[in-house]
Structures are given as C-alpha cells and as structure tokens.
Amino acid sequence: MIVRDRAVAESINSRRVNEKYLPDAKLPRDLKAACALEEVSTAGMVFLAVPSRSILETAAAIRPMLQTRACVINLAKGLHEETLTLDRALANELPGVVIGSLSLKGPNFARPLLHGAPTGMTLALSDLTRSKEVLQVFEGSNVSPEEHLDLSGVEFVAAVKNVFAVIMGICDAIEDNPNTRFMILSKIIAECHRLLIHFGFDPSVMFTYAGLGDMLMTSLNDTSRNRTLGLLIGRGFNFVTQGAGPVTEGKKATRLLTQHTIATAGHFPLIHGLNEIFEGQKSPQEYFKSLAKG
C-alpha cells in the first residue's frame, strides 16, 4: 500500500493500524505500507484508490514505472468531463495497460468490510484472463466479487448513483414516510435505467452490486455522505453554493449529466431538477412537489 503520509505508513507497518482513518480496525499482517511511488514497478496488479479528481495525475506519475501489460484497477467513483467515464480517461493516460474497475462499485462501506462483514463487489476488466487473476486475490476472504463485461457501464452506474442518493436525501427530508420514499426510489431506478440506455451502456449493469446494490445502500443509509448532503439541502441548509467535498462532486456530476441529456430533458426529470436546485433556479420543496405529482 502506497500512502502519502509517512506517519500512516509507520503506523500500518509497526502496529497494523491506520490511526488516521480507521484506528479501531486491525489490518492484515502481510500488508506493508510505503511512501515511494516507485514501489509500483514491482507489481503486475495496481489498485488506484485515490480521489477521482486526482486519478489522472496519479496515473501519469506512475506510468513510467509500470510493468509491461500491467493491470490497473480503478477504485474511484466519478465522471470525466471529456470521456464521461474514468476508465476511458485512464485508457487514454495509460496506453497498453489493462484497465479494470472494482471495489467501491458495490454495496460496501469501509468499516463493516474491515470488520469481516460479507460484502459484494463488481469487477469489470477489459481482459478476461487478467480478470481471473484479480478474482483470485479475494479467494478465502469475506469479499464476494462478481464479473461484468461492460467496464464503462460499471464505472458510469457507480458514479451516477451518488447523484441519485442526493435526490433521495432531499425527498426524505421533505416527506419522511415509506409510501413516498419507495415511490421516489422507483423513479430513481427507472431514470438510472434510462440513463444507461441513453449513453449506450448495457442496461443489465443496473442489476449488479455496482448498480442496484450500491444505489440502494447509498440512497437509504444515513451514513452515506451523498444522502446526508441531500437531507441537509432538503432541510434548508444552504450547501448549494459551497464548493467542497460531496457538494462539488454532486454539482459537477449533475451538470455533466444535464449537458449530455439536454435534448431529451423530459426523460430525466430527476437529474435536470436537481441541477436547477444546484443552480439556484428551484427550491427543494418545488422540486419535491414536481416529483410527487408526476
């Protein structure tokens, strides 16, 4: 594990604990931490666990050090301005490298995972042989990986579900009852399915851990940052004009999806309505009323 903070590396190596982020979780004995990027030169399989805004910068930094035909697995979630999905942007940055997607694309939060809870993840890889090698890494663990062939589709649905979690939070903050909640959730699932078709992805991605599994967990669980953001917006907190954390991520993704679906806006009322909230053109209450009617 390559980390930025030397104190974190020392903590992992000497005490098997990441005291900065998860001090109550014991890490595996054979996990070693380092601070030098050059360590990737010894690995045939590299997992990129960095924020989406940093992923291309990190990829460019490790590119000269990667082995020939190395396998790089993206764990970040996000959309890209030009290529839409991060796997396509990584393929441009790392020509000749086998690109894959795994881990955070599934119903899993870090703490239950590290405490041994059975957890599902979706793996999508452009090389089926290398896919089997990645799956072998998880043999005997509490992780149950599944495979899907649509790499970009998995990347897309994993990023888009964060936007829908904000929407679910807004609606739950305004009207907290099971009837309304699951009416809105049904609309969310239907609109996400239409988005997959609109962008040419395999709609069966919807029925993976990365799709419905992650979407339901993130939309309905109060430990989700994006759902919490929606709850705060729905309760009147003015996070719309702020520019940090999930606010920035949510605004960027919503704006990008709105731009790409402008000609068919009527098919995507949830996305376009959320963009109007972020742009200050509609209140959360007006947004909720429009969804509850249609």
From TrEMBL:
Keywords: Lipid biosynthesis, Lipid metabolism, NAD, Oxidoreductase, Phospholipid biosynthesis, Phospholipid metabolism. Substrate binds at K77, R225, N226. One of its GO terms (cellular component) is cytosol. It comes from the Bacteria. Belongs to the NAD-dependent glycerol-3-phosphate dehydrogenase family. One of its GO terms (biological process) is carbohydrate metabolic process. It comes from Vitreoscilla filiformis. The active site is at K161. Pfam families: NAD_Gly3P_dh_C (PF07479), NAD_Gly3P_dh_N (PF01210). InterPro entries: 6-PGluconate_DH-like_C_sf (IPR008927), 6PGD_dom2 (IPR013328), G3P_DH_NAD-dep (IPR006168), G3P_DH_NAD-dep_C (IPR006109), G3P_DH_NAD-dep_N (IPR011128), NAD(P)-bd_dom_sf (IPR036291). The keyword Lipid biosynthesis applies. The keyword Hydrolase does not apply. GO terms for molecular function: glycerol-3-phosphate dehydrogenase (NADP+) activity; NAD binding. Residues 150-288 form the Glycerol-3-phosphate dehydrogenase NAD-dependent C-terminal domain. NAD(+) binds at A110, R225. SUPFAM superfamilies: 6-phosphogluconate dehydrogenase C-terminal domain-like, NAD(P)-binding Rossmann-fold domains. It catalyses: sn-glycerol 3-phosphate + NADP(+) = dihydroxyacetone phosphate + NADPH + H(+). Residues 1-127 form the Glycerol-3-phosphate dehydrogenase NAD-dependent N-terminal domain. Its EC number is 1.1.1.94. Signal peptide: none annotated. This is Glycerol-3-phosphate dehydrogenase.
